Amino acid sequence: MTIIKDVTKENIEDLCWFCVPETKRNDPEWIKGVEDKRRWAGAMLKKQGSLAKLAYQDNCAVGMIQYQTILEEGIVYIDCIWVPWERYWQKGIATKLLLSLLDDIKNSAIGGFNDGQALALVTKTFPGGAPNQLTARQFFTKKGFQPIGKDPDYLYYPLRPGFVYRPKKKKAVKYQPQKEDKGKVLIISGPNACPATYPYFLKRMEKYIREIDTKIPLQWLDASQESFAVKKRGVKIGDCIVNAKLIKSFVLDKENFQKEVNKALGK
Question: Could you tell me which of 211, 74, 81 has the C-alpha nearest to residue 141?
Answer without folding.
Answer: 81
